[in-house]
Amino acid sequence: MSDALRVGIVGCGMIAKKNHLPGFASAGGWQVTALCDVLPERMAEKAEEFKLPEAARFEKDTDLFASGLVDAVAVCTPNDCHYPQTMAACEAGLHVLCEKPMAGSLAQCTDMVGAAKKAGVVLQINQSIRYSAPYQAIVAKVKEGAIGEPFHARCIRAGNGTPNKGWSPGADWFVQKKHEGGMLVDIGIHMADLLRQIMGPATKVAGLVDTRLPDIDVPDNISALYRYANGATGVLELSWTLPGGAGFLEVYGTKGRIRMGFNGNLIEMWQDGPNGGVTTTVNPEGCPNSQKVFARAIRGEEPSWTPGEYGRRALALCLGALESSETGKWIDIPTFPGEDAC
Fold first, then answer.
1. Structural domain boundaries, residue 301
2. What is the pLDDT of residues 34-57, one digit of tens each?
3. Phi and psi (nearest 5°) for 73?
């Protein structure tokens, strides 16, 4: 594996276990040469599970960045760590695959984008929906005009519990404002970005948020209404308190609709026609994972699909909904120089 890219995993929690470590293994062209975590036992656990006995272990991220053992790092830590760790990694000349949300503010996002450009390294944000075959099949169908001009979309993602009690027990930073947690930047940032990819640039947002659970200080129920540049609308609903949970995506166009439930990822498309409507099933094609695209970007084979600019735009969609809830006003979605429309 002498020609493999060397990567260090910063933060050995659940997202490293479920996404990054298996992702680097399946992508090919990577060698995990270092692990970093404040808990030595967590590094030991991942080294054993993923057969990484030779990977160096660091309890301090700065020691890893200065070690010379890696070409790139995956930042898999709590949200409030993303900004300082990415900045330090870029300054060390390392490519960075950073978990979402990339930062807590748009100003920090801009700093991160600038630091990567200054260092000449790739900064990719793990907006994983962009690497999901079912979701991207819907995007492709809409883009090719299968349902005409899209004018409305509805998306709901809801569960009956918070991630610190279900998905990653004990990871309380998910539900703490001081660690920049919250449902909007956990799940909403994926779905708001997906709606934008389907519908085009969002120009403004109105949002309402609520916190129903007594032991957290971030919103656990969110409703957002987006206006897009083509006049279309989109509704996003998120909840950590919906009994039984819920999940679906629907996109309506001038010539049909396309929809998907989140159980089984069955995609159904209805198209208008001269003899009435026709319903078909859309079969997703394969899609490379984030780690494979990250490697291609580092090697100069193609640009990253989700560079820092994309992460910043996704965060803007979320922060706008929060600001609207606080002010009771529509919030304009900021634009940034040099960004394309999708």
1. 5-128+290-307
2. 999 999 999 999 999 999 999 999
3. -135, 150
